[in-house]
Amino acid sequence: MATNTISLLPIPPCCRKTQSYLLSHPPNLKPGVLVTSFAGTKLSIRPTSHLRRSTAAALAGLSRLPTSKQGDSSEEPPKWSARAIKALVMGELEAHKLCYRQTGTESLLLGILVEGTSLAAKSLRANGITIFKVQDEIVKLLGKGNLFNRSPSTPPLTKPAQMALDWAVDEKLKSGEITVTCMLLGIWSVKESAGHRIMATLGFDDEKAKELAESVSSILRLASDLAS
C-alpha cells in the first residue's frame, strides 16, 4: 500500500532567526497586548500600557495649562474636547518620533492632522495641507532630530506652543470648550512660530482662518437653534 509522505523543505537562513525567536517568544494574543509587524528578522511585541502611559502623561500635562492669560486661580479648569486631547497627545508623540526635545507648534499641527477627524483637520486637507507635506516642511525648517539624543516620551511644550494653547484657552470660540479648531487658530495666531510659517508656506492665510472661525460659529448657531 502506498504511503503518503511529506517532504520538509530546509528553512532558509534568513528565516532561522525568526523561527528561533518565535519558538522562545511565542506571540501573546491576550487582551492588552499589541503585536506589531516584523522589523527585520525580529518580532516586536509591545504592551498597550505604553500607549496608555503616554496618554495619561499628556492628560496630566493639561492640568498644568493656565486657565487664562491672567492666571486667575479662581477660574474652573478649562474643558477640553476629546478630539483636542487626542490631537495634543498625537502632537507630543510626533515630536518624540522626530527626536525633538520639545513639542512645538509644528508638532501640534502634525497632531491635528494625525487625529484627522476634526473640522480643523478637514479644513487643512481641503486646502492641500497634509501630514506628509507638513513633515517635509518641518525637516526643511528645523532639520532632523538627533537620533542619539533621546527625546522624552512626552516632550514639554515650547514657548510658542504654550502661547498657542493659551490663545485657545482664552478664545474657545464661544463653544464652552477647547476644540481642535481653537488649537489650530491658536497656532496661526503665533506669527513667528514654526507652525504658522509652515501653514503659510503651504497656502493657509488669514482669510482661510476667518472662514474656519465663521464655520464654527455657524455650527454653534445651528446647534443652539436646534436645542431651543
From TrEMBL:
Gene3D superfamilies: Clp, N-terminal domain. The keyword Repeat applies. Keywords: Repeat. InterPro entries: Clp_N_dom_sf (IPR036628), Clp_R_N (IPR004176), CLPT1/2 (IPR044217). This is Double Clp-N motif protein. The keyword Coiled coil does not apply. Residues 77-219 form the Clp R domain. It comes from Actinidia rufa. Signal peptide: none annotated. SUPFAM superfamilies: Double Clp-N motif. It holds the Pfam family Clp_N. It comes from the Eukaryota.
